[in-house]
Design brief:
Blueprint lengths: L5 E6 L5 H13 L3 E6 L9 H8 L18 H7 L2 E7 L1 H9 L5 H8 L4 E5 L3 H5 L1 H12 L3 E2 L4 H7 L9 H16 L6 E6 L4 E4 L2 E3 L6 H12 L3 E6 L12 E5 L3 H12 L4 E4 L6 E3 L20 E3 L3 H6 L7 E8 L3 H11 L4 E6 L11 E2 L1 E5 L5 E3 L3 E2 H20 L1
Parallel strand pairs: 1-2, 1-3, 3-4, 4-5, 6-9, 6-11, 9-10, 11-14, 14-15
Antiparallel strand pairs: 7-8, 12-13, 15-17, 16-19, 17-18
Helix pairs in contact: 1-2, 1-9, 3-5, 4-7, 10-14
Bound molecules: cytidine-5'-monophosphate (C5P).
Length: 408
């Protein structure tokens, strides 16, 4: 979403200026064109040589280039920008921005910018807490500027107070979310995804589960969020996290029954439902309240199993016409025929079939080989070995084209 975007990255004179180099790297890696505008104080903290080498553009700091006398038009830079990010934003620069004190190139550019402005305050706790700073930040908010603060979890884990600059990745994610919500192909859409395994308790310390890691479902969630969707994952126990925890809501569950309930509560709101979880087919009929002790009986215990609900089938039965449901099928043989049978039985619009027989496919890997079978057209498309994120993009492309075909 940031590819080709024109970003003005403003750097002011705070110690966090070194982090702007990381932010610049993230932006450039994502394909954005970045113009650095740095304040005179900013140059005390970070050298323009580093910044121009990484951005591939001369750094702008003064109104004129000293040796050539070339004039830098703050108006042109302001108009060129698709977004302006000021990170770090010091108390002094924030005060100038709030009051229109245009005594350097950066603040002058800020006053001329037509693009949305994002700023990441960075100062010590006392400066941040001062009513003057608080008032200036409130003023900038009232101008529609976006204030980027560190995520709450991070504050706690770093034991650093309010005032510390948000991490470069968070600043980057905020920008990516902004453009995704504005221009993404799934903007305004609600996507509900199930992911990971389920654990079915035998007793408080043991369970029946499977080797699913949730990587495929989370890759779909990341890709849907990057396309601007409002994404919720109902997730079994996994170690993966969404790339941007602000963009993807995670509802954690343990068993198939919990997954069914959590999914049922959210399905009515969803436009697109993707059932990528490896749900356990059976659960112990009588999970023990206490750890089953080896000494208690001479023989090995027998665990009686009951069938778990089929989440896809239960939800599929109530599917509305304007909803798209995608299922997954992990097959070992007759993949195509079994996939088609499940498509019908579960009332799905599409099924993504993968086979453990394919190298690089299945649980735990970062790659997958899939065939997408479409109920409406009956077509089966086999894709080559790809990263799970690229497979996620293929799946969502298929969903988007099914949706636009459905509208005609
Ligand atoms: O029938 P099978 O388990 O092979 O079907 C796979 C598809 O059904 C997957 O999309 C999976 O998430 C879903 N499923 C489910 N609830 C179950 C079993 C499978 O939603 N109990």
């Amino acid at each position: 979403m940031l590819k080709g975007k024109h970003i003005v990255l403003g750097i002011t004179g705070g110690i966090a200026a070194y982090k702007s180099v990381m932010l610049l790297r993230l932006l450039v890696k994502a394909g954005a064109e970045v113009q650095i505008v740095i304040t005179p104080a900013g140059k005390e903290f970070i050298t323009p040589v580093t910044l121009s080498a990484l951005s591939g553009k001369p750094v702008i700091s003064e109104f004129f280039t000293a040796n050539t006398g070339e004039w830098h038009s703050h108006v042109d830079i302001g108009l060129w920008a698709d977004a302006m990010v000021i990170a770090p934003a010091t108390a002094s620069s924030i005060a100038k921005m709030a009051n229109g004190v245009a005594d350097n190139m950066l603040i002058t550019t800020y006053l001329s910018a037509k693009a949305p402005v994002f700023l990441a305050p960075a100062m010590d706790l006392d400066m941040m807490a001062h009513p003057s700073t608080q008032r200036n930040i409130a003023t900038l908010r009232s101008y529609g500027n976006h204030i980027i603060e560190p995520a709450e979890g991070e504050l706690a884990s770093h034991l650093v107070g309010k005032g510390r600059m948000a991490e470069p990745q968070e600043i980057f994610n905020t920008l990516a979310r902004y453009f995704a919500a504005k221009e993404g192909s799934l903007r305004g859409r609600k996507v509900l995804i199930t992911a990971g395994p389920t654990y079915e308790r035998i007793d408080p310390v043991r369970f029946i589960g499977n080797f699913s890691t949730g990587k495929m479902g989370y890759a779909i969630a990341d890709e849907a969020a990057a396309r601007g969707a409002d994404v919720t994952i109902v997730s079994g126990p996994v170690a993966v996290r969404p790339s941007d925890s602000e963009a993807v809501k995670v509802v954690s569950v343990e068993s198939a029954r919990e997954m069914l309930t959590a999914t049922q509560e959210r399905v009515a709101d969803a436009d697109i439902v993707i059932l990528a979880a490896a749900v356990a087919d059976y659960a112990p009929a009588h999970p023990a309240d206490h750890k089953i002790k080896r000494e208690k009986s001479a023989d090995a215990p027998t665990i009686e199993l009951v069938k778990n609900p089929d989440i896809a089938r239960t939800l599929g039965a109530e599917k509305r016409d304007n909803q798209i449901f995608v299922g997954f099928a992990l097959e070992t043989d007759d993949a195509d025929a079994n996939g088609r049978a499940k498509l019908v039985a579960k009332n799905l619009d599409m099924i993504v079939v993968n086979s453990l027989a394919d190298a690089g496919a299945g649980f735990g890997t970062d790659t997958n080989v899939v065939t997408i079978i479409d109920a409406a057209t009956g077509s089966a498309r086999r894709f080559p070995l790809k990263s799970k994120r690229a497979v996620a993009a293929d799946i969502l492309d298929a969903v988007e084209s099914a949706q636009s075909a459905g509208k005609q």
